[in-house]
Structures are given as C-alpha cells and as structure tokens.
Automatic annotation (TrEMBL):
Residues 2-214 form the AAA domain. It comes from the Bacteria. This is AAA family ATPase. Gene3D superfamilies: P-loop containing nucleotide triphosphate hydrolases. It comes from Heliobacterium chlorum.
Length: 317
C-alpha cells in the first residue's frame, strides 16, 4: 500500500505527521517505508543527523535514483537506496516492537529533478508521433510507480511518501504511484483555501494520465488513488475544543464534502521541534511524561483512523 502525503502549502505539519504515523505503524508491527520526496529534506533529517547523511547517505538518495533514469535511462533498484535509521530503530527495539521503519532519504538538489523531468518529457515530444509521445509521458511519470511496486508487494505493508508542496513532475510521479492520498492542513484561511483546488488538480492529473494509459498497449493501467481525507494539524484548543475561528475553517472544509478525519493534531511546537534532533518521532518518546500524554493519544488515534480508511479502501476495491 502506497500513500502520498501532500498539500500545496508548506508549514502545515506534513512531515511531522508522516514521521509519526510511520513510527506508530512500525510500533504496531507493520513493515513501513518512508520516502522523502521533498527537497527541503525535513523528513530525512527527522531520522538522520546531518553528519550521518553527509558521511554515509548523500549518494544514496532518491535524487541519485532519479538522476540515473534522467541522465542514462538507467533503472536502478530502489531497494539499494533504503536505510534503516539507527536511533528510531533502537527505540522501536527498546519498546519490543516487531515492526520495521525504513527510509529513502532526500537531497537538497532534488529541486532540480523537476526541471530535468520536464526537459525529458519535452525531448520526448520532439519529432515523434503523438503515440510515441504518449508512451514517453507514461513511461516517465510511471517511473516511481514501477520502482515502488516490488517493494509494496514483497517488502513493506505500507509506504508513505512525503511530497513537496507543489504538483510538479516529481510530485506527479508520487501521485501516479499512490494507492491513497492524505492531506494535512492547518485550519486557517490560506491552508484551507486551496484544498478543493488541490483535489481538482489531482483529478485532472489522474484523468490526463488515464486517458493516455487507455490508448496504449504497453501495460500502463489507469490509476485511481483513494482520497483518504484531510487531517487538521497544528490546532489550538481551549477546553479541549478548537478555538472558534479554527472551528469555522474546519466546518467550511467539511461542508465541501471532500472527506476529513475526526482526530485533530494539536499545536505543540516545543515538543515536535525536539524530535528531529533526537531522531525519534514524538509518538515513540516515553509516554509517562505528562507533556506527551495528549500528543500520544492524538497521534495514535490518527494512525488508527488512517488504518481504518486503508481497510475501507481495500474493501472498496
């Protein structure tokens, strides 16, 4: 099962949510892979120190995997780019968890891959038939899907992709690879304004891809990623209820009937900011600390909701 976590707007808690859902699923015994597709590399440095990345992993990133495909048309095995973050792994073993939490790291230079993919698609449209262009479009945008399918089938129960805050070509390869889509959003004007537009653009991408896939005999099948819904993050509470201004934005999204989660992730900047330095997501920190009790409860509840929606998705197919 491959799930992309995406929003047009940055700063909505996307990476924190991805890391904690992954960690909680691993704690529950799942084999989990997280893929950092964001050039900001925040998910990568939530698990690895800068020194570890520079010493051992800067040449083992998703950027190098894309570069091999773009520059040489070389199809490297994504399995060779997987690392097991030491600090999170030790914490899971200390908790006697039987699950696995692995990572494919990102790279700041991933921002250039979007341009390179655009050029590759453009070159594929020069002096060729419309059919040849369709084939190149499908082949290029399906590349991540092709790479992840063996891992999803044989190695992991769940793969979570932390997408950049845009719908450029790298993000499009993630959407096309995905079985489901998860949308974190702050309940404020800017974050909620673009949710319906995001869904519209995602639907257009899926429609464009499927229209080409249905015309080609090359084995590219139509896609239909399941909309898991919107998770409201960084929510300020008063007496365990969202502030009224925040509730108004939450209600506005719910009225759009695009699917939302019941669990609200609260704003705890100090606690969340400490987690990347330790390399251990908040949900795996000692729950005995009173300051973490509410956070643990909400992150665990959110993970349970995600798992329930994944089961709904499976049963609906």
């Amino acid at each position: 099962m491959i799930i992309s976590v995406i929003n047009y707007k940055g700063g909505v808690g996307k990476t924190t949510m991805t890391a904690n859902i992954a960690a909680e699923m691993a704690y529950r015994g799942k084999k989990v892979l997280v893929l950092d597709l964001d050039p900001q590399t925040n998910l990568t440095f939530s698990f690895l120190t800068v020194e570890q990345w520079q010493h051992a992993y800067q040449h083992q990133t998703i950027k190098r995997w894309y570069d091999a495909f773009i520059d040489k048309d070389e199809e490297l095995d994504l399995k060779d780019f997987i690392t097991r973050p030491e600090r999170a792994h030790k914490r899971l073993r200390a908790l006697e968890a039987t699950g696995i939490l692995d990572l494919i790291p990102s790279h700041l230079g991933l921002v250039n891959v979007d341009n390179d993919l655009a050029i590759k698609i453009w070159k594929g449209n020069q002096g060729v038939t419309e059919r040849s262009h369709r084939y190149e479009y499908l082949r290029i945008l399906s590349r991540l899907k092709t790479g992840l399918i063996p891992l999803a089938k044989n190695e992991y129960d769940i793969i979570l992709i932390d997408c950049p805050p845009n719908l450029n070509y790298v993000t499009q390869t993630a959407i096309i690879a995905s079985d489901g889509l998860l949308i974190p959003a702050k309940p404020d004007y800017l974050s909620t304004l673009g949710i319906s537009e995001l869904k519209q653009h995602l639907n257009q991408l899926i429609e464009d891809y499927n229209s080409k896939a249905q015309m080609e005999p090359y084995g590219y099948k139509p896609i239909c990623p399941y909309w898991l819904g919107v998770v409201f993050t960084m929510v300020g509470l008063w007496k365990n209820e969202p502030y009224q201004t925040l509730q108004d934005y939450i209600d506005r999204v719910k009225r759009q009937q695009i699917g939302t989660f019941e669990t609200l992730i609260t704003e705890n900047k100090t606690d969340y900011s400490e987690a990347p330095e330790k390399g251990i997501p908040v949900v795996l920190t000692p729950a005995s600390k009173d300051r973490y009790a509410s956070i643990h409860m909400r992150l665990k509840a959110l993970t349970s909701e995600v798992e329930a929606k994944i089961q709904q998705m499976k049963s609906g197919r």
